[in-house]
Hints:
alpha/beta
Amino acid sequence: MPxxxxxxxxxxxxxxxxxxxxxxxxxxxxxxxxRVSDVAPLSHATPEHLSFLVNSKYIEAFAACSxxxxxxxAKLADRAPAEVAVxxxxxxxxSFALAAQLFYPVPVPEPGMHPAAVIHPTADLGPxxxxxxxxxxxxxxxxxxxxxxxxxxxxxxxxxxxxxxRVGAGTSLSHCLIGARVSIFPGVRIGxxxxxxxxxxxxxxxxxxxxxxxxxxxxxxxxxxTIDRGSGPxxxxxxxxxxxxxxxxxxxxxxxxxxxxxxQSAVAGSARVGEFVQIAGQVGVADHRTVGDGVxxxxxxxxxxxxxxxxxxxxTPAVPIRQWHRQSAQLARLARGKAAxx
Length: 342
């Protein structure tokens, strides 16, 4: 349950107000003027709470819950207790996410410049920005309206940041153009030099990294993730991407619109990730490989060749997921056979 020391709830709201926001419909007999004051899981919900059901394995908890209202698929609505108002949704998880945002909106930072921040006189900051202690904003930086620049952030020369973007504490930004409504979590490194050099026995020769990082609108970048600038072409993270903590994006990579990359994954130089790709944890994509639109990669997959659009893959080297499961099962049978007494 949310700790009120850290989270401020915005409720109560009527069921009619909630239904409109979360793209759901009240079932017959539900009072649209009934109010709920918070959200909670089925196991903890009281008559003051809105809860949700996504997975049918929790149907018994749903049938016994004490929530005031619950978001659920239409096909399961009749399993709710009589006193629970049901909001039916085609995508209950999305609807609950919208409800949680309604009750717990992202706090609006109080505008102001901390006296311990260092801001170059040529930097241009839009209205209602907040810059916290220890931040350093270099020459020619342009920051849009209502941005939050966290403590000890460093922003290099000529960086541009769009409206309503949040930059977490301890982040460093250089050689990058960042869009609007981007969320950058603490400790992120964007725009540092890529891993580029010519190997030579007499001493490796560094290749100058002369590109940029382009982060489009509505991107989220998790804590301690690193995104290298291009070596010549730009590194590009397209609109709406979600990148988890501890991800490495190398120089010249292009990640397509709406793609999701989970923690500890790495995309090597000049690779291409298509639109709405889902990359699970600890996946590696080799340099110059292409992952087509809509592909899903299971955890710890190794991509060593191009992958056509669509489909789910696993293993190293990556193969279609069913083939990977068959290979794993066959390997397990072989191992049992070797271990069995003769």
